[in-house]
Design a protein that fits this description.
This protein is of the alpha/beta class. It is built from seven helices and seven strands. It has a seven-stranded parallel beta sheet with strand order 3-2-1-4-5-6-7, sandwiched between helices. β1, α1 and β2 form a beta-alpha-beta unit. It is globular and about 45 Å long.
């Protein structure tokens, strides 16, 4: 059992974050969810770096961080997007990930063991039409993960990312139906993924079973990934 370990999951009140919380709890890990929703263990805005830092002090030692908080952003052609829409998407998807890492990773490094799993997307590798801001921020999460994995490679803290294709989560409700239909049609298995399927990969990346992988991106795409 891993009852001595604590995990923090941003965006943990729904979707992939909630599924990951259930799965890590099943492994005996004390799991704390962070979200804007009142159902989260800690209600916090991940774009508020000061609030995250204060919360990290309140929670104490954390061994596992899963950065699942994210938004779709503008679901329309790039030329129709606004600077404000881009800024909001960057603030949540990219800076929110960075802020969470800066809040919780130093303690992992200090203690010599940790697992960080960032949630990227196939959009960050392929670039989905009609989702330019989302795709760009998820590409940023991938590059961030690769950089941090190298920086922390000898510390005992492993940093990996997952790149899901379309998964049946509330995030889909904010996506234009035509865009959603297009990116779903790209999946060779001809179905969307289930949150619990992604949670299995997250749980593995958070475990002692992973010891020689860091700065890597794991696709979970029903066969969509081609590189």
């Amino acid at each position: 059992m891993n009852s001595h370990r604590t995990a923090v999951i941003t965006g943990g009140a729904s979707g992939l974050g909630a599924a990951a919380a259930v799965r890590l709890n099943a492994d005996g890990i004390r799991t704390l969810t962070l979200d804007l929703a009142e159902t989260a263990d800690h209600q916090v805005d991940i774009t508020d770096e000061a609030a995250l830092s204060a919360l990290a002090d309140l929670i104490g030692p954390v061994d596992i961080l899963v950065t699942s908080a994210g938004i779709v952003g503008p679901s329309k052609p790039l030329l129709e997007t606004t600077t404000a829409e881009w800024q909001r998407t960057i603030d949540v998807n990219l800076f929110g990930t960075i802020s969470a890492i800066r809040a919780f990773a130093p303690g992992m490094v200090e203690r010599g063991w940790g697992r960080i799993v960032t949630i990227a997307s196939m959009a960050g590798k392929d670039g989905n039409p009609g989702l330019s801001a989302y795709s760009a921020t998820k590409a940023g999460v991938i590059a961030l993960t690769k950089s941090l994995g190298k920086e922390l490679a000898t510390t005992g803290v492993l940093v990996n990312s997952i790149a899901p294709a379309v998964i049946a989560t509330p995030l889909n409700a904010a996506t234009d139906p035509e865009v959603l239909a297009h990116i779903t049609s790209l999946i060779p298995m001809k179905r969307v993924g289930r949150p619990e399927e992604v949670a299995e990969l997250i749980a593995w990346l958070c475990s002692d079973a992973v010891s020689f992988s860091t700065g890597a991106v794991y696709d979970i795409s029903g066969g969509r990934a081609t590189y």
